[in-house]
Fold:
Amino acid sequence: MRFLLPLFLALFLPACSLVYRIDVQQGNYVTQDLVDRLKPGMTKAEVKQLLGTPLLIDVFHANRWDYFFSNVKGRKPEDSSRLSVFFENDKLARHTGAGRAGTTPTAQITAPNPATQTTETPDAPTRQSPAANPAPNPVTPSPVGR
Structure:
């Protein structure tokens, strides 16, 4: 019996440290180029369109939005960033904190690509609006039930 306990400990204790921990990213990925686009006087809708939905809107501080990002790799916190946006009369008054270094991936997607833009030729037929050519009424009276 004394032999089983050390054998059990020798086999199972090293396995406890081998448990894989996934990388966890939480929050809003707000880069510094997005923070640089913030201008005083922007509405809440414009700020939300630029930065996304804030991670925290405090009930007691409705004029303050907090954007927080943290990255934990395994068991170690790698980095984090925090940006607080303050409003007065539903207009952007100021912000504190900074965004993450780098460029926003969506900025590259939304930029127009001149190679994919097409121009209309004068020979191409034009579509008419549905109001210009109304469709006939598809509902016809039924002879049943008269």
About this structure: The helical segments are 4-16, 32-36, 44-51, 105-110. The beta strands are 24-27, 56-57, 64-73, 76-88, 91-97. The first helix runs from residue 4 to 16. The domain at 19-100 is CATH 3.30.1450 (Beta-lactamase Inhibitory Protein; Chain:B, domain 1).
